[in-house]
Amino acid sequence: MIAKVLIPSGALGITYSKEALKEGLKESPDIIAIDGGSTDSGPAYLGQGVSKYSRATTKSEWKALMEARDSLKIPLLIGSAGTCGTNASVDWFLKITQELAKELGQKPKIAVLKCSQSKTRVGDAFKKGKIRSLPFAPPISEELIDSCTNIVGLAGVEQITSAIDTGADIIIAGRSTDASLIASYPILKGVEKGIAWHGGKIGECGAFCTTKPKTGVVLLSFEKTGFLVEPMEKNSQATPDSVAAHMVYENADPFLLREPGGLLDVKDASYEKKTERSVYVKGSRWVEDLNYTIKLEGAHIAGFQNISIVLIRDKKYVENIDSWINQILEKATALISQTLGLDETKYEIQTRLIGKNATLGSLETNKNIPFEIGVLGIVTADHQNDAEEIAKILNPLFLHHSIFEEGELPTFAFPFSPPSFNVGPKYEFCLNHTIELKDPMDIFHLEEY
Fold first, then answer.
1. What CA–CA distance (Å, rounded) separates 241 from 318?
2. What's the CA gap between 118 and 13, in Å, rounded?
3. What HEC string does 291-341 produce?
4. Cβ contacts of 417 within 8 Å, gap of 6 or more
5. Residues of 138-166 as b/e, b for ≥16 C-beta within 10 angstroms?
6. H, E, C per residue of 215-234
7. Is the dihedral of CA 391, 392, 394, 398 positive or negative?
8. pTM for the full predicted model
9. Among 191, 198, 231, CA closest to 212
10. What are phi and psi of 78, to 5 degrees?
11. Is the CA virtual torsion 107, 111, 115, 116 positive or negative?
C-alpha cells in the first residue's frame, strides 16, 4: 500500500472507541486524519466563530490522538477545527493543542492553515465577477457581504497538502471539505486523484461506512488505482453496500461529488468484498475544472430572537390547537400594532407544535391527535427589545386564551419562570457561493509554530 490513513471518527467531539483506535495503530498508519466540524448544526457557530463542542470533550479526545500520533511519530491532521473553521476557532484549538503538548511533555511542530476571509477581499471579487452562486444559494450584494460576521473559504487538497508539506507533526486546518482531509496525503504519495478523493468521501465520517458506525475508527489503505476500507472494531464489517451507500450521505448525486478544483465521478467504480470485514474500491475518476474555485460560507445577523414555551393537556384545546394558535396570532398582531406601532414586516412570530408537527410542519402526514402538546413560540425582530416586548404580549395569551365565547378561562402550564427567554442574535447563512482563484493558496494563510 502507498498510503494508510486512520480516521478515528466522523468528527472530533462525538467520541470514538479507544480499543478500535489501538487496533488501528497496530496497522502502522501513515497519518491520522479527523474532521473537526461542519455546518450541520446551523449558522450560529460560523456567525459567532465558536465551537459547538465542549472544550473539555475536545481536549480529552484530542489528547488521545496526540498520544497516538507521538507513539508512531506520524502526522496528525484536523480540519474545520473548532466546528466552523474561522481563524478565532482555529486559534482556540491551537491553544488546546499547546496546553496538551506541555502537559504531555511533547514538542510537536505545528502548522496552522487559516481560512477566514476578509469582507473587502470577497466584495472586490464579487465586483470583478469572480463569485458564482451554488444551486439554491440566496442572492448576494456588496451590502450583504459587508453584513457578514464571518466568512470562510473551504480548503481542499491543494491547501491541505501545502500544510502537510511543511513537515509538521500536527496540522490544524480551518474550514475544510471533509473528503480533502483524507484525500490529501494519498495524493501527495502518488495515488490517482479520483481514487484518493473517493476514499476521502467514503471515510469522511469514520465508521459510518461500516455496519457499526458508533465505533468511529476506520482505516483506508491506498494503492495507486484503488483503496481498501476496513473498520478497526473487531465485530464490525465494511460491506459493498455500506461503502457504496456513503456516496449519497449528504450528497444529492450518488455518482458525482463537487470538490475544490474538480469533480469526483464514481459511475464506473466497483466495490469488491475483499475479506469478511473489508471492501476494495477502484474505478473512480477525477475531472479537473478549467478554472480553480473554492466554496465560500458566510453568516450574518438576520434579527434577534425570544422564545417561549407553554404546555397544553386540555383535550378540547389539544384537539383544536390550530384554531387556538390562529386566534392568538390574530390578537397578538393587533396588539403589537396598537401598542408597539410595529409593522408586520418588522417582526415574525413562528409556532412549533411539539408532539404534533414540530419537525415537518405542513409536511407531516401523521394525523393522530396527541394527549398533550408543547407550543414553542419563536419571535424574531429587528431589535432584541422588540422581540422581548412581543413575547410579553404573547405571555397572557399563551397562558389564558380561550377559544370559546363562554365558560371559564383556561390556565395552561409554563415550565419556566419567566416563560420567555432572549436568545440574542439570530444568525443566517447568506453565502453559499464559489470564488475563482488564480492560485489555490491566494486566500489562505499558513502559520508554523
1. 44
2. 29
3. CCEEEEEEEEEEEEEEEEEEEECCHHHHHCHHHHHHHHHHHHHHHHHHHHC
4. none
5. eebeeebbebbbbbbbbbbbbbbbbbbeb
6. HCCEEEEEECCEEEEEECCC
7. positive
8. 0.93
9. 231
10. -130, 140
11. positive
Residues in the chain: 449
Amino acid (one-letter) located at 218: V
Mean pLDDT of 171-176: 98
First-last CA distance in the chain: 31
> Partners of 32 in the beta sheet?
6, 76
In whole angstroms, what is the distance from residue 392 CA to residue 418 CA? 10
How far apart CA 216 and CA 210 sit, in angstroms, is: 9
The DSSP annotation for 393-411 comes to HHHHHHHH--SSSSSPPP-
DSSP 93-107: HHHHHHHHHHHHT--
Residues 294, 155 contacting (CB under 8 angstroms):
yes
Q: How far apart are CA 398 and CA 420, in angstroms?
A: 11
Residue 107's CB is within 10 A of a number of other CB atoms, namely 10
Residue 350's H or E segment, with its range, is strand 347-354
Enclosing H/E stretch for 263: strand 262-265
**In contact, 387 and 304? CB cutoff 8 Å:** yes
Cα(280)–Cα(405) distance, integer angstroms? 71
Please choose, from the candidates 296, 229, 303, 231, the residue with its C-alpha nearest in 3D space to the C-alpha of residue 269: 229
* Per-residue confidence (pLDDT) for residue 407, from 0 to 100: 78
Query: 345 is written with which cell numbers?
Result: 414586516
| DSSP code at position 139 | P
Q: Residues 176-217: pLDDT tens digits?
A: 999 999 999 999 999 999 999 999 999 999 989 999 888 889
Listed in sequence order, the residues at least 6 apart from 229 whose beta carbon sits closer than 8 Å to its beta carbon are 199, 202, 203, 209, 210, 218, 219, 220, 238, 243, 278, 279, 280, 281
- pLDDT tens sequence across 77-130: 999 999 999 999 999 999 999 999 999 999 999 999 999 999 999 999 999 999
**Whole-angstrom distance, CA of residue 83 vs CA of residue 264:** 25
For residue range 286-301, what is the model confidence (pLDDT) as tens digits?
Answer: 999 999 999 999 999 9
Residue with cell 489528547: 63
Tell the burial category of 250 from Cβ atoms under 10 Å away from its Cβ (0-12, 13-18, 19+). exposed
